[in-house]
Fold this protein.
Amino acid sequence: MKTVQKTSLKGLTLSELEKFVLELGWEKFRAKQIFKWLYNKQVDSFSKMSDLPKHYRDELQEIAEIDELKLLSFERSNCDGTIKFLFELKDGEKIESVLIPDESRLTLCISTQVGCPIDCKFCATGAMGFRRNLTAGEIVDQLIQTQKHTDRRITNIVFMGMGEPLLNLKNLLKAIDIITSDDGIRIGARKITVSTVGIPDKIIELANAGKKVKIALSLHTLDENLRSKLIPIASKYPISSLIDALKYYYNKIGLRVTYEYIVFDGLNDRDEDIEKLVELAKIIPCKINLLKFHPVDFIRKEPYLKPSTRLEEFAQKLREHNLTVFVRSNAGEDIKAACGQLAILNQ
């Protein structure tokens, strides 16, 4: 007997669900009912969709499914309460997500790819290589599944987990639609940050999508040669082209840009680096996030990369030029959940 290929509904936007129900010969408004059950009430069974007629629920059971990530393990930091989740996907691939508590917010760091093709030398994920893009459903379900493990509502989303979000832009945009929808998960666009190593045409495409999410550039240096060494793909995109794309994004969306800057000992923590950042900050309204380098020697060896001893001094000198500067926390470092430490070690 031939097995019917069921349609996975998680990850479908409202317009896609409307097309789905119309093809079944159902009323169009049924799509919004299903959308609410999937993303707002977050049910795991069609039988729980009580405002659908029973024969519709029975039909969905036959032709569709609600896929869920399988939680394999989670680990909680003894230092700051950060939780790292390990999920298995339907095809056996694995990803990690990180829940970061703060007094005023609860932030989820979401992955968009299995592995990553960029191979940043300071990042553990890149050492895995690239496996595949996540579906919109797999992106959204990280939020749905992690929410089950906290009594607090998740308030903020950062697409800073495994992978380069802009290389999975189609599914990223679908996920943002679902997460921000009033009938969906209902997290405001301004509570969402998309982090990228900088792919100019994709930054422009994100701007044109009009989602009004924040954007963060993984910058780390304004020296072209050093940046290409740290981020190999940077050799394709001069920093000037990134700045032009970010100008476009700011003019289109109206939100200031964030520059992410890991401070490395002797590489990018000199006074001349401060001067270059000060000049950069004059071009587009921005804030600068300084990060400690979190060693990734459990998966890759880069002996020239060491944490700077003058991180706080570097931050203070930037602030003296009236720049908005934050020194990011080391949340989750003790469980290898801090920035740059996500990796599946037993593929």
About this structure: The mean pLDDT is 95. The radius of gyration is 21 Å. The first helix runs from residue 14 to 23. The chain has ten helices and 14 strands.
